């Protein structure tokens, strides 16, 4: 998600502001067990009880920032000390009894613009003995405890994937599969909402004229049930589903067995739930715009929080097809066809046929865009716009996946003719749902083919990874993220995870440990080695995000509602948050990038959860698991 997904959640925001039941940043809750609750010091409480970090360098104690989950024995190990001191200071690694295991001196860094803090770094990578409950002590302060263990991330791969199960639409969620998250099926045509089994298109008498500058509707009702709820709302968006499905399938494709056998793997079963929905979004033959794909299905207007899917009172609306959505289906259906072929021939054939049809339809309708938000008329009253007026990267991605699956010359020629093929598709701030050229590039590099110049494609991924490592070397908290201008984007944690996928892909291509180590160092930032001393993954670490913006997981507002599930990643710091209309972000005006975040359910610009951020988290977790088992 980026700023182009800005939502005007007036009712939801109002409910959050009057609730007065928020939990403090870092408190733990029963739904996601962890260490005892700890609350940062030196922070200001918001109207809902959430915490806006103080910008003082000593804000979030302890001042020694570490990966609160742990480090792999044979991986890099770093920490960051927040201090005004300019000279080196001694540090020591201790076990639970206080025994010193190793020691050394810090490396002064000085003022870090991304955090607004003066810091020094600690490198204890030479110590590799496993241990639990370890701490780094420096400048009179001890870090949160952590482990050095091959099992440190043992459950993360499964937890990050299970997030998608509890986001499923159109089926009851089993409490046996996801304890504490069982609920009734949502949007199945049962009161109070009309559901997704028979959804009308926008009518000529409502928003279509304002939205598209021309009247548009379609006849009949369409069954678009199933799929995943995108984020904190109940909308379902093809372009965000596309990148999420692609990254999950990429995780499977890089690690799949050479000779698949047995039942459909859990990951592919989960992906199929979304792919089946995306196929339903494709306009059927004989209808106007046949082969194109509807952009989204969502509520007619915004709803408040908390709200279970089965209780959503809003009518559902099916939006006009878009070229971007159509190419997303073309890409992921082609990718899915080659992965499902080993398990389900019929599904693979259906996916490939849908992909070919979608690609041809997009070629015939290359400029059908989802409109950008217009505050003057608010043409997206109940959903995010996900607008994208440059689909050259989507054409490239779709052609790449079709070529890799079929080997057809026409798709190969489209890949080679695309300007995106030789362009820089790896920006400093990371790729996202609207800039998907990197997905095609990485698959062209990884999946065996007879593509002319494939070595150059692989080199472009390696060059991008080298650039990310160079940027990482400037960051004293270890994140693979140094965006232009130092401004953290909406969903910065998702951007960091996407950059980490590039590093992991470079390692797969080259076997060079520096790429693996760069990915592992960046993991530290997400799990607590950051300005806020906070793990952004629910249930992981001593202090973690747990009040993410969601109608389904709204414990902050209703004690009977769960926290977000273990393994949910928060969007993270957003330098533009104060200007978005997010009521919780207004006090963040002028914040240093890393502290532009608040763990409050009302902060939809910094603290949402969404499928396209959890997908790269799963990719990264799967990569880390491979390093342990190798």
TrEMBL record:
Q: Which GO terms fall under biological process for this protein?
A: cellulose catabolic process
Keywords of the record: Carbohydrate metabolism, Cellulose degradation, Glycosidase, Hydrolase, Polysaccharide degradation
- Keyword Ribosomal protein part of the UniProt annotation: no
The Glycoside hydrolase family domain, residue ranges: 153-620
* Transcription regulation as UniProt keyword: no
* PANTHER family linked: ENDO-1,4-BETA-GLUCANASE
Query: What stretch or stretches form a coiled coil here?
Result: none
What catalytic activity is recorded? Endohydrolysis of (1->4)-beta-D-glucosidic linkages in cellulose, lichenin and cereal beta-D-glucans
Location of the region described as Disordered in the Swiss-Prot/TrEMBL record:
557-577
Q: This protein is called what?
A: Endoglucanase
Q: What is its EC number?
A: 3.2.1.4
Protein family (similarity comment): Belongs to the glycosyl hydrolase 9 (cellulase E) family.
Q: Report the leader peptide range.
A: none
Q: Name one GO molecular function term.
A: cellulase activity
**Domain of life from the UniProt record:** Bacteria
- The Cellulase Ig-like domain is annotated at 60-142
Enumerate the active-site residues.
549, 599, 608
């Amino acid at each position: 998600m980026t700023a182009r997904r800005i939502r005007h959640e007036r009712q939801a925001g109002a409910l959050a502001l009057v609730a007065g039941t928020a939990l403090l940043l870092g408190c733990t809750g029963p739904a996601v067990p962890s260490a005892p609750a700890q609350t940062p010091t030196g922070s200001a409480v918001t109207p809902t009880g959430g915490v806006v970090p103080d910008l003082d360098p000593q804000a979030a104690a302890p001042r020694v920032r570490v990966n609160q989950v742990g480090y792999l024995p044979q991986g890099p190990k770093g920490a960051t000390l927040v201090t005004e001191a300019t000279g080196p200071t001694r540090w020591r690694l201790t076990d639970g009894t206080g025994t010193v295991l190793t020691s050394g001196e810090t490396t002064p860094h000085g003022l870090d613009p991304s955090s607004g803090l003066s810091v020094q770094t600690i490198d204890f990578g030479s110590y590799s003995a496993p241990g639990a409950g370890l701490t780094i002590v420096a400048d009179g302060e001890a870090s949160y405890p952590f482990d050095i263990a091959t099992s440190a991330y043992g459950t993360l791969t499964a937890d990050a994937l299970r997030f998608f199960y509890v986001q499923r639409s159109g089926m009851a969620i089993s409490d046996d599969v996801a304890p504490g998250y069982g609920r009734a099926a949502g949007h199945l045509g049962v009161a109070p909402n009309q559901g997704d089994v028979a959804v009308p298109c926008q009518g000529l008498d409502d928003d279509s004229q304002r939205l598209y500058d021309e009247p548009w509707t379609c006849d009949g009702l369409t069954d678009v049930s199933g799929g995943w709820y995108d984020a904190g709302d109940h909308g379902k968006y093809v372009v965000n589903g596309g990148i999420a499905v692609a990254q999950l399938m990429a995780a499977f494709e890089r690690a799949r067995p050479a000779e698949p056998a047995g039942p459909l793997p859990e990951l592919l079963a989960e992906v199929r739930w979304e792919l089946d929905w995306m196929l339903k979004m494709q306009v059927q033959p004989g209808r106007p715009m046949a082969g194109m794909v509807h952009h989204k299905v969502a509520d007619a207007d915004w709803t408040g929080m908390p709200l279970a899917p089965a209780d959503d009172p809003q009518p559902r609306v099916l939006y006009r097809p878009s070229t971007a959505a159509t190419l997303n289906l073309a890409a992921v259906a082609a990718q899915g066809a080659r992965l499902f072929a080993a398990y389900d021939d019929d599904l693979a054939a259906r996916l490939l046929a849908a992909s070919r049809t979608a690609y041809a339809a997009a070629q015939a309708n290359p400029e059908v865009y989802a409109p950008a938000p217009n505050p003057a008329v608010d043409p997206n009253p109940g959903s995010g716009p996900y607008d994208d007026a440059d689909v050259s990267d989507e054409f490239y991605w779709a052609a790449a996946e079709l070529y890799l699956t079929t080997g057809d010359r026409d798709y190969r020629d489209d890949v080679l003719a695309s300007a995106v093929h030789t362009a820089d598709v790896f920006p400093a701030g990371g790729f996202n749902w609207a800039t998907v050229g990197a997905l095609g590039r990485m698959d062209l590099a990884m999946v065996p083919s007879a593509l002319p110049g494939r070595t150059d494609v692989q080199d472009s991924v390696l060059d991008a990874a080298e650039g990310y490592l160079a940027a990482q070397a400037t960051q004293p908290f270890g994140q693979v993220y140094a965006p232009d201008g130092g401004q953290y984007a909406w969903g910065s944690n998702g951007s960091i995870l996407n950059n980490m996928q590039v590093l992991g892909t470079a390692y797969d291509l080259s076997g060079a440990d520096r790429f693996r180590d760069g990915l592992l160092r960046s993991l530290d930032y997400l799990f607590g080695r950051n300005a806020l001393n906070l793990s952004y993954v629910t249930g992981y670490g001593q202090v973690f995000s747990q009040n993410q913006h969601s109608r389904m997981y709204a414990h902050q507002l209703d004690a009977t509602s769960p926290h977000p599930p273990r393994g949910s990643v928060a969007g993270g710091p957003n330098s533009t948050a104060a200007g978005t209309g997010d009521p919780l972000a207004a006090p963040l005006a002028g914040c240093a990038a890393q502290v532009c975040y608040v763990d409050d359910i009302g902060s939809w610009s910094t603290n949402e959860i969404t499928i396209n951020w959890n997908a790269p988290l799963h990719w990264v977790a799967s990569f880390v698991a491979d390093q342990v088992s190798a």
